[in-house]
Structure formats: structure tokens, C-alpha cells
Amino acid sequence: MSSAPPAPSGPAASSGAPAAAQVLAVLGLLARHLEPLPAAAVARDLGLPRSTTYKLLAALGNAGYVTHVPETRRYALGLAAFELGSAYARQAPLARIGRPVVARLVDTLGLTGHLAVLHGRDVLYVVQERASGQPTLVSDVDVRLPAHLTASGLAMLAALPAAQVRALFPDRGAFVRRHDTGPDSPAALRAALTGVRTAGYAREAGSVTPGLQSVGVPVRDGAGHPLAALSVTWADGAVSGPLEGPGGVVAQLREAAGRLERRLGVPVGAGRVSS
After folding, report:
1. Where does residue 29 rank: exposed (0-12), middle (13-18), buried (19+ CB within 10 A)?
2. Count of C-beta atoms within a 10 Å radius of residue 106
């Protein structure tokens, strides 16, 4: 009879439920890194035998919590992990903390504001504050829309590691179309996200509703991962002048995102990329 693998002596050790502790340690380690990790690094950092590490990664992969990137032989969080994280984010704490931030943004800009989270390939809106005189939108609370068509979704996808984006959008079949605009393939999405990273914000015009435009920025955790996104929407022609610059729409969004991060306990400057 073969003996059980030795219990880890490092961070993954636990006197209560070692298997559960090892699973949580693997997920926690992957969550703290923006790029996928090789199995050897997971085993080293957690003090686990390599055989145990591969078994854990395989089990998590079968459940969708970990995805394997065959080109680099590395591992990253899978779709199920993001769904779990966004499920937490959808609960009352994020909406309760974020609603005053969105309301202040709406008062400042006079544009309808949103707070959204990623849910698989979609965004789910958890807060919407409609500005006076602005049109009614489809992006109401609890509404889901394709992430690649929305400013909020593009802002969050651009903040994810490339391997995570590939796992979410592996081929053309993953792309939903509404009005024949927006990315429709992995290559088109990569190009769009490169533009978002360069600009430091995401913008869509008519991809969700013809005649309406939106701009969005990510709200990040301490590791730089997107917790949510803030965005504002307006009718064509309602915003004059450049979006960027002191006091502009983008600057106000960034300031609001930073304020929300502080309210959520993210250290000042952690994970925020200047542009």
C-alpha cells in the first residue's frame, strides 16, 4: 500500500483540513500573481510536493477554477474562479460602498453612472445612478451585457492577464453581436484591449445602444486585478470637448475609482497604473 504524500510544512500546511487548505493556498497564490505560474513555482512557493501540486491543479482545472496555458505550460485562475469572485462582488457590500461614489460622480458630470462587475463573459451592473435629463438605458441594476461590447467590460478585461482573456474568449463563438459593432474575434479583442491599456480607459460608441457612448475605468485590488469598473454614459453630442485633461470625464472617473478603492480597503497606489 502506498503511503500518503507528506503534509506540506510551508504556507499550505493545516492541522484541520490539509487538502482544503492546499486547494485554497493554490487559488490564493494564483490570485496574487498577474501572470500565470508554472507548476514548479506553485510547489516551491507553497512547500508542496510536485506530485501533489499537479493533482491539485488537475482537480481545480476539471472544476474550472484553474486554466492551463499549454503554450507556456503555466497555470492561471479559470472562469469559475472569476465567477466566484464576481458573485461576492455582486453582494450588498460593493453596492452599498459604491453607490455614494457613483452618485457623486453623476452630480459632478451630469451623466448617468454605473458600477459593474465581471461575470464570465458578461458584465453585471450592481449600481446605476441616472442623471437628470439623460436617456433611459438598458444597463440597469442586475442587467447583464456582453463584456466586450461595454466600456465597463473592456476596462476590466484590459486589466486581466492575457491568459485569462484567452480563456474567456477562446474563439469567434465566444463573441455576441448586438449592432454589428465592437470586437468580433480574439484578434480584434486583443487590439481593442491594447488601445484601452494605452489610453488608460475604455470607450464604446453605439456597441450597446446606437446613439449612446460610454467611458469606463477599472477599480482594482491590491494586486492590480479588476474588482469592478466605473463608467458613465451619454447621448451623442452631449459631451463637448476632449474627454481627457484636468477635470474632464476621464479624470473624474479615475478620481472616483481611486476613492472607491480606498473605501474598499485597497492601499493607496496599489495596483493602479498611471497613464
Report:
1. middle
2. 21
Residue type, 213: Q
Q: Model pTM?
A: 0.67
Cell representation of residue 132:
437628470
The strand ranges marked E within the chain are 37-38, 66-69, 74-77, 112-119, 122-129, 144-146, 202-205, 212-220, 226-235
Look at the chain and count its residues.
275
Closest CA to 155 of 273, 237, 266: 273
Cα 102 from Cα 197, distance rounded (Å):
23
Alpha-carbon span 203 to 97, nearest angstrom = 25
Q: What is the mean pLDDT of residues 98-119?
A: 94
pLDDT, average across residues 88-98: 74
Convert the pLDDT of each residue in 204-239 to its tens digit: 998 888 999 999 999 998 888 899 999 999 998 888
Distance from C-alpha of 208 to C-alpha of 140, rounded to nearest angstrom? 13
Q: How much is the pLDDT for 139?
A: 66
Q: Which of 5-9, 186-190, 265-269 has the highest mean pLDDT?
A: 186-190
Sign of CA dihedral 259, 86, 154, 128: negative
- The C-alpha cell that represents 165 in the structure block: 482573456
Angle, helix 151-158 to helix 186-199, in steps of 10 degrees? 80
> Alpha carbon of 151 to those of 67, 123, 140, 236: distances in Å?
26, 10, 15, 15
